[in-house]
Amino acid sequence: MTKLSLAARWHRRRLFGRLAPLVPPEDLMFEGPPTFREFHDNGVEFLGVYRDLAGLRPDDAVLDVGCGIGRKTIQLTRYLTPNGSYDGFDIMKAGVDWCNATIAARHPNFRFRHVDVRSDLYNPSAATTAERFTFPYDDEHFDVVVLGSVFTHMLPAGVERYTAEVARVLKSGGRSLISYFLLDDFSREAIDAGRSTIDLPYVHDGYRAMDEAVPDKVVAHDEDRVRAMYERHALTITRIEHGSWCGRTPALSYQDLVVARR
Ligand SMILES: C[S@@+](CC[C@H](N)C(=O)[O-])C[C@H]1O[C@@H](n2cnc3c(N)ncnc32)[C@H](O)[C@@H]1O
Description:
Blueprint: H1 6-16, H2 36-52, E1 61-65, E2 85-90, H3 93-106, E3 110-114, E4 142-147, H4 156-169, E5 170-180, E6 182-183, H5 185-192, E7 202-204, E8 207-209, E9 219-222, H6 223-232, E10 236-241, E11 256-261
Parallel strand pairs: 1-2, 1-4, 2-3, 4-5, 6-9
Antiparallel strand pairs: 5-11, 7-8, 8-9, 10-11
The protein binds S-adenosylmethionine.
């Protein structure tokens, strides 16, 4: 990890104010564009999305699956009250260690866990696969479960298992907010015409992939399959906001956002 220059510290302080100590150096940002500006804007955007689309309230219990290095977490430290709680888990130990050392150290109602689940992209040597993994939480524990840019890096079998687990840990009436690249006629046409921001040339049953050598590098899922999967797990989709990734305008966000209620 590089030591931050005075100028970088000043920039981080200017963007994040008193949250600055929770923000990792840019060279640790493995989960998105590695700049303080993008890290900041993504967190602010998603606090709004959690509140406005998933109905997140300050006293809620939130689970963030694939929490990364806290990009979408940091802003929640000034939104959730001590009666609320945040649990995050991820397969990347570096991110979880950073979040424990900075966020959890200052906010006891924020907890982070490392889980050793296999991903070709992020954690290729782990023994446990996503389709056999059980979230380490009790049934009906959370008001809101979020996954930001996680199913975009998972294949259908793992996504199915994780969706069952999301349904299991949600309270009755609880909401999930999950981002995807969804395949429908519009996005398929955009990809094939080269108008999408991501190239997904490899077509499989139910999904398309960017890279055959690293199958979960970037994954788009058939929207029809996703809808049927939610039905199988008794999650009622209440809203789909298609994103700008394949050229849609206007769009609320970059990825497609699916909100559901248990
Ligand atoms: C693009 S990053 C997004 C991180 C964070 N949600 C955010 O928006 O900043 C994808 C994250 O998903 C995590 N991930 C991938 N597969 C996972 C799995 N099977 N279980 C939990 N986390 C996973 C990765 O380690 C990585 O942190």
